[in-house]
Write a structure and sequence with these properties.
Order of helices and strands: HHEHHEHEHEHEEHEEHEHEHH
Oligomer: single chain
Strand content: 15-25%
Low-confidence stretches: 139-143
Shape: globular
Distance between the termini: 57 Å
Mean pLDDT: 92
Number of strands: 10
Helix content: 25-40%
Strand order of the largest sheet: 1-2-4-3-8
Number of helices: 12
Length: about 300
């Protein structure tokens, strides 16, 4: 990239996250469209003040005079044997902050389309890239995810706030809606395959973006199935799965035939040697699908 674009456009910065983001904010307010990279989302916290108190509020505090067309790319999640400093999932921390778009693609096609949408928009975007999808080694575990897909050469953009039906229902069996994003979509897809053998008909929704959230897609699906399971890698308490559960309850209470189930990481630091036990695998998702489908 440096060779192709030159050092006036590609800047090799010191490892100072607050400085990286602060510099990029200044560039954005003066009309540029910077793309900042925090190499692991675990290290984004030194820049948290710059992101939530400056970047997220630039348009609001200036009365719309200073948009902030800026993208922060950062890998998140576990599955690469990176230990607790290279495996965290902080997406809900940023989804909580007004003024930020929060994106989490699950596959190569969506990643390009969503990234182009982010770059050419006029608001700040936290672009979470699931690291085990694009760089994780396969340790022989059934939660590894290495999807490949065709990516067009040209310019195409996927609008924010539009979820994808990663696996439609077949119409045969007990219907359940399964909701996730990022690398967990592939874990959920495997669980859906296992569930089909038990007569559970899963509709898998890939959110693509957390902010804005495609509430209509969630409500439409759960009103048809009457059952919902939500999954994320992050810890259970205040994770994004909790927000999804609340939204589904608000939108679909009268249609629910079973309690909403959450499948998440544990409320502990991310463990190195017990990574496989910490991260939700297809069997844990399957157990939730089974419990929801069999609830009476």
């Amino acid at each position: 990239m440096l060779f192709r674009s030159g050092d006036d456009r590609v800047i090799d910065t010191p490892l100072a996250e607050s400085g990286i983001i602060g510099t990029a904010i200044g560039m954005a307010t003066y009309g540029l469209r910077p793309i900042a990279e925090i190499q692991f989302s675990d290290f984004i916290y030194p820049a948290y003040d710059q992101i939530v108190n400056e970047l997220a509020k630039a348009r609001y505090r200036s009365g719309g005079q200073f948009p902030a067309p800026m993208v922060i790319r950062t890998p998140f999640g576990g599955g690469i044997r990176g230990g607790h400093y290279h495996s965290q999932s902080p997406e809900s921390v940023f989804a909580h902050q007004a003024g930020l778009y929060v994106v989490a693609p699950s596959n190569p096609y969506d990643a390009k389309g969503l990234l182009l949408q982010a770059i050419f928009g006029d608001d700040p975007v936290i672009f979470f890239e699931p690291k085990r999808v694009y760089r994780g080694p396969d340790h022989g575990t059934n939660w590894s995810a290495h999807p490949k897909g065709e990516v067009p050469d040209g310019d195409y953009r996927i609008p924010f706030g539009v979820a994808d039906i990663a696996r439609p229902r077949t119409g045969t069996g007990t219907p359940v809606t399964l909701v996730s994003y990022g690398a967990m979509v592939h874990t959920c897809a495997k669980a859906a395959e296992l569930a089909a053998a038990e007569g559970i008909d899963v509709e898998l929704i890939d959110l693509r973006t957390l902010v804005p959230l495609d509430v209509e897609a969630l409500a439409r699906s759960v009103r048809q199935t009457g059952r919902a399971v939500v999954a994320n890698e992050a810890p259970r308490t205040c994770g994004f799965a909790a927000e999804l559960s609340a939204v589904i309850q608000e939108q679909c209470f009268d249609w629910l035939a079973a309690p909403i189930a959450r499948v998440t990481g544990w409320d502990t630091p991310f463990p190195y040697t017990l990574e496989g036990a910490y991260m939700p695998d297809p069997q844990r998702v399957l157990a939730a699908l089974r419990a929801v489908a069999n609830y009476r």
